[in-house]
Write a structure and sequence with these properties.
alpha+beta, two-stranded parallel sheet
Length: about 70
């Protein structure tokens, strides 16, 4: 969700107001470092499960989180 990367994070930010209107709440899950300074600036919840250690931003925490929260 790093704003410096543009692309997908900005797309998510652009979509969330509409999603919030229809769903009531939105939570984004990412593999960013939970200590990243840009987290907490958005009007929706971001759960950061990183930092990832791999080139493809893999985090072994993601699958268990998805299983528990979906």
């Amino acid at each position: 969700m790093d704003p410096k990367t543009g692309g997908p994070p900005q797309g998510i930010r652009n979509l969330t107001p509409s999603l919030q209107k229809s769903l009531g709440s939105v939570e984004v899950v990412c593999v960013d470092n939970p200590e990243a300074g840009y987290l907490g600036d958005d009007p929706f919840r971001i759960t950061a499960l990183g930092p990832s250690q791999k080139f493809w931003s893999y985090s072994k925490k993601l699958e268990p989180w998805l299983r528990e929260n979906l």
